[in-house]
Write a structure and sequence with these properties.
Helices cover about 35% and strands about 25% of the residues. The protein is globular, with a radius of gyration of 12 Å. A hairpin with a 5-residue loop joins strand 1 and strand 2. It has about 80 residues and is α+β, with helices and mostly antiparallel strands. The longest helix is centred in the C-terminal third of the chain and has 12 residues. It has one domain: GIY-YIG endonuclease, CATH 3.40.1440.
């Protein structure tokens, strides 16, 4: 797990999607659930992890996170279906 870089997508209870990066997915999900994760996700739980992609470098993961954030909701939904 060391040096693992993860891009993930959550579906919030209001059906919105949140995309993030972490190097410890389990810990990051606990932070979201406790309200100490990203400002966007506060009050939007519970969450469902709908997309996870792992990378060997932080740079590659951050590039993927940026690419996903540029997608439309329709494109994000297609990405989720394809994984």
């Amino acid at each position: 797990m060391e040096n693992e870089h993860v891009v993930y997508m959550l579906r919030c209870k209001d059906d919105s999607l949140y995309t993030g990066y972490t190097n410890n997915l389990e810990h990051r999900l606990k932070m979201h659930e406790s309200g100490k994760g990203a400002k966007y996700t506060r009050g939007r739980g519970p969450f469902k992890v709908v997309f996870v992609e792992r990378f060997s470098s932080k740079e590659a993961a951050m590039q993927k996170e940026y690419q996903i954030k540029q997608l439309s909701r329709k494109e994000k939904m297609q990405l989720i279906q394809d994984c």
